Amino acid sequence: MALPPNLANVVNDFAASPPELKVELLVEYTDKVPALPDRYTDHPERLEQVEECQTPFFLATEIDDEDRITVWFDCPPEAPTTRGFAGILAEGLNGARVDEVLAVPDDFHHDLGLAAVISPLRMRGMDAILFRLKRQVRLRHEASEAG
Fold first, then answer.
1. Cβ distance 75 to 86 under 8 Å?
2. Rounded alpha-carbon distances, angstroms, from residue 144 to 80, 103, 124
3. pLDDT value at position 97?
4. Which of 27, 34, 105, 141 is the most buried (most CB within 10 A)?
5. How many angstroms separate the Cα of 89 from the Cα of each of 32, 58, 61, 92, 144?
6. What is the tens place of the pLDDT at every residue in 38-90?
C-alpha cells in the first residue's frame, strides 16, 4: 500500500495496538486537528461540508507552490471518533505531495482496524471524508496546472 510516510506511521501504530486500545488511540488523535486559521473561521463558506457524516463536519485543502498539501477540518469535540479520524488525516497528510495524497488507497482506514470497534455508519463517514478530501486536492491541482 502506497502511503505518505507520516500516514504509514499512523497506520503502523494502529496495527500494533490491541483491539481494546484502538478507540482510545483514535480519540488521542482528536488533539492533532489544528485550529482553523482566520481565513476559514471568518469565511466558513470556504469549507466543504461532508454531508455523509452524522456530525457537522467540514474540510478544506490547500496546495502550496511545491505541490504539498495542508488539510483543515472543522469538527466538534463532541464527535471524538470523527474528529480523531480528522486528526489522523491531518497528522498523516499535511506536508505530503499531491501525488502521494491521490495515491492513498480509498480504504486505507480499514487497515487501522477500526471496523471492529466503531459502527459501519462511522466507517462510511470516514470513506466520505477521504473521498471529498482527495477530490478537492485533485480539483485544486488540476486548476493550478491549467493556469
1. yes
2. 34, 19, 30
3. 97
4. 141
5. 9, 13, 11, 5, 23
6. 999 999 999 999 999 989 999 999 999 999 999 999 999 999 999 999 999 99
DSSP per-residue letters across the chain: ----HHHHHHHHHHHHS-HHHHHHHHHHGGGGSPPPPHHHHS-GGGSEE-TTSSS--EEEEEE-TTSBEEEEEE--TT-HHHHHHHHHHHHHHTT-BHHHHHTS-TTGGGGGT-TTTS-HHHHHHHHHHHHHHHHHHHHHHHHHHH-
CB-CB contact of 66 with 125 (8 Å): no
Query: Structural domains in the chain?
Result: 5-146 (3.90.1010.10)
For residues 56 and 76, the answer to whether their CB atoms sit within 8 Å is yes
Q: Which of 101, 99, 12 is nearest to 59 (CA)?
A: 101
pTM over 0.90: yes
